[in-house]
Automatic annotation (TrEMBL):
Pathway: Nitrogen metabolism; urea cycle; L-ornithine and urea from L-arginine: step 1/1
Example of a GO MF term: arginase activity
Protein name, per record: Arginase
InterPro entries recorded: Arginase, Ureohydrolase, Ureohydrolase_dom_sf, Ureohydrolase_Mn_BS
Catalytic activity: L-arginine + H2O = urea + L-ornithine
Top-level lineage group: Bacteria
GN (gene name): rocF
Amino acid sequence: MNKLDIAIIGVPMDLGQARRGVDMGPSAIRYAGVVERLEAIGHEVTDEGDIQVRVTKSSDMTQTNLKNLNEVRIGNTKLADKVHEVVTNGKFPLVLGGDHSIAIGTLAGISDRYKNLGVIWYDAHADLNTDETSPSGNIHGMPLAVSLGLGHDELVNIRGFAPKVKPENIVIIGARSIDPGERELIKERGIKVYTMHEIDRLGMTAVVEDAISYLKSREVDGVHLSLDLDGLDPLYTPGVGTPVPGGITYRESHLAMEMLEESGLITSAEFVEVNPILDERNKTADVAVALMGSLFGERLL
Ligand SMILES: NC(=[NH2+])NCCC[C@H](N)C(=O)O
Ligand SMILES: [Mn+2]
Ligand SMILES: [Mn+2]
């Protein structure tokens, strides 16, 4: 295990989707013992606290079909600057959500350090909608598209450059709910997707091995793991706003985290969509922290 300097950044953002409460995700994950857990492995951990996010919904949806565009943009701009600072200081950013719209800021903050960044998107969804294709207007369904440079200018251009990632450097794992516009984009850009079909058919071992060798063949200089807790089956992580049945198991997820840790490729991570209001006794935050344990090198023997 490689000893890391981990910087935890909380993002109490819930304006990227419709169900309130996911702003309490960072507190729930801290309560589940994230700092102690990572320290016990032997890492240096600093909790950088939370990014200030405006809590009031904007009523103004007149110009675009994006909900709370301004608040989401401002929160992500602050997050991007913070992540950039942490990366520049040689620390490993571990971002706690908050809804998945915060991946916009995380990726904006990382990607000028890693010019050929790889991204693993562990999620039931592809999050590849744009303002034109979104069925909901919820920005948490758009962060991957935004990072590809597609969507509203104000989101795409955070930190003044675009795109943040290349389509051929992205791997999606666990997809089982894909909208028509997203399907088109996946085909058009040749984005690598392991749906639940591939996970069932090949097994998680083969899927993660394949994902790792694919990213290595792309010669990535870093890999960001963006883990949406709804990637797991809602049996294991009920505290999410957009659950989709038929998901990845708890065991498969631990295996995936262990294999990613062994690969030595991961240079940043975020765990998102933990909503304590929808959860059962903090189960989803507990799973998030357990998976972080595996991702950061915790082993039984
Ligand atoms: N990060 C998430 N949970 N995203 C869910 C997105 C759901 C749907 N595809 C939408 O765009 O509205
Ligand atoms: Mn999702
Ligand atoms: Mn997501």
